[in-house]
Predict the structure.
Amino acid sequence: MPPKKKTKAPANQPKADEKANQHSNPPEEFNSSSAVPAKRKAETKDAPSKAPRRSARGASSAQPDPVKLINHLLSPASLDSCRPKDEIEDVQKRGKDLRTYSSSTFSPFEELICAVILSRPISHALGLRSIRTLFNEPHNFTTPKKIREAGFEPIRKALDEARTQHRQKTAEELVLLADAVAEHLGDGEEDVSLERVRRECGYDWPKEKEMMKTHIKGLGKTGLDIFARRIQAVWPKPYPFADQRTLSGLQKLGLSGSAEELKKLVDDLWTDLDVKDLPGDEDEKKRRVFVQLLERAVGVDLEGNADAVRAEATPKSE
């Protein structure tokens, strides 16, 4: 009988220590009970009952103060809790003017690029590193014109520098995205506002989503959810929106479990929130606070820092 051949892992398989990109919703079909072997279940069925083990995660039943928690999440002090380690190091090395997904304001066109990248099955760290590489020196691929003038190869090389995955396919899709915006979704290749989408759809969000999905290769439901999560700060129609992945992060912080509940919480606590530096009128400020809470919550969750952030806002017992 011939010896068994060893199988090799696929060349593009993620490294073991990198988390899968979880900007999208977790798969609903996973049943945690199925992960327990049958033999183990049989052994535990007749075992004597033991006092439940208290972990550090559930050691305190104290709830965080919502005003203190929200103000902490809105402050620069919370940024490192939601950033991958390499982004923290990159900001320290290159300065606070470095444009990052965690802390910068992007144009609608740039948000579309981010949505395409982050909807890929890659880690949180790789997605954010790709965005930093594309949007900063020496590349600055921030308009349809710059991407079209550069073409496929420089985009692919920039993604090579980011040491990310799916580089060729992502580069192809970003060039096609720039073409789609220049020709169908924007007012020429210098435009980054996507106002043409809103005008032609009569400012109807479902129609806007369908128009973008039709013209942009690689932008599916997950990408549209990521885009909606951020763009509602300046486009009022999707507000209030939060996908299930983000709501999970909010719940781990002790905040409201639905988009409507979070909106109401922000309204109720508004006079106690530190929002003086946010642009816009009161309605826009509230949308910006809502979006920032979503982004910080999902980042904190992906980086495994929810307990530490909760502790910052939890009253200490006497």
Remarks:
- DSSP finds 15 helices and no strands in the chain.
- The radius of gyration is 22 Å.
- The mean pLDDT is 85.
- The first helix runs from residue 38 to 45.
